[in-house]
Design goal:
The protein is α/β, with parallel strands linked by helices and 270 residues long. The protein contains five helices and eleven strands; from the N terminus they run ββββαβββαββαβαβα. Helix 3 links the parallel strand 9 and strand 10. The chain is globular and about 50 Å long.
């Protein structure tokens, strides 16, 4: 069993999304099989060193992509990372585009979300104490600023803000739904895994950054989505995502003086 006091707590976690199932970003030191009050997380957690930083890696869908988005144990995943001492999460994921300005192969750092999920466990506070966490700005502003500069310096095509609509899945949208998300709700990208992952991170006072890789235009564009097409683009973009993360980690400050994520519960608990 991994002990936080052994060489210090894990500082940063990467939750690998579709197309990023294995850790090849840092030197592996150990693999942890976590136990949480909510059951097992998606898979074992790999812990190792990236330079001077202690990093954890957890594949969101499990190795081999065996867990669909609506069956992911989000509470167990976040709980396990918090238990390791994680204070920051970098969360790459695959999304579809609802806007021609956001093209397949490009990266987006969303700054807002709209929740259209239906049947998930959204909170750690489910009876013993009331908590109304603020999600006005759902992603860590400090991590977003750092990532913005990092990706810009790399010369990679990206968008520094936009709205992510999260649907239940595992099916893709109908044409009518897709047009509704685009034309009525004015969302920019669509995915299935952001909620409740980022909410639970905020309840755990963990900084959270979404790095959304655009794989396709959703069906509003009259181009039916297939998993095969998505995977092909993901494989091409996986190296870009890894490059971003590897360049981003050394830029992340050791302290959290420029965000309020670490005190999110101060005015949320009743």
């Amino acid at each position: 069993m991994y002990k936080k006091e052994d060489n210090g707590a894990v500082e940063i976690a990467i939750i690998g999304g579709t197309g990023i199932y294995d850790n090849d970003l840092f030197r592996e030191e150990k693999t942890i099989k976590s136990h949480t009050p909510y059951g097992p997380p998606s898979d074992s957690i790999t812990v190792g060193m990236f330079g001077e930083r202690k990093i954890a890696f957890l594949p969101r869908h499990g190795k081999g992509h065996r867990i669909p988005p609506h069956m992911i144990n989000y509470r167990a995943n976040i709980w396990a990372l918090k238990d390791l001492g994680v204070r920051r999460i970098i969360a790459p994921s695959a999304v579809g585009s609802l806007n021609y300005s956001y093209a397949p192969g490009e990266i987006m750092l969303p700054d807002q979300f709209i929740d259209f999920t239906k049947n998930r466990n959204y909170s750690f506070f489910d009876g013993s104490q009331a908590c109304h966490i603020s999600m006005a700005d759902p992603f860590c502003n400090d991590l977003r600023r750092t990532a913005n500069k990092c990706i810009n310096d790399l010369g990679i095509k990206f968008h520094d803000k936009g709205t992510y609509v999260c649907i239940e899945g595992p099916r893709f949208s109908t044409r009518s739904e897709s047009k509704m998300f685009r034309d009525i709700y004015h969302a920019d990208i669509i995915g299935m895994t952001l909620i409740p992952e980022c909410i639970l991170a905020r309840e755990s006072e963990i900084c959270y950054l979404s790095i959304s890789t655009i794989t396709d235009y959703d069906v509003w564009a009259e181009q039916p989505v297939s998993s095969k097409d998505v995977i092909e683009i993901l494989q091409k973009n996986a190296d870009t995502t890894r490059t971003i993360i590897s360049k981003l980690i050394p830029l992340i400050s050791n302290d959290r003086n420029d965000c309020s994520c670490g005190s999110a519960l101060d005015e949320a608990l009743l």
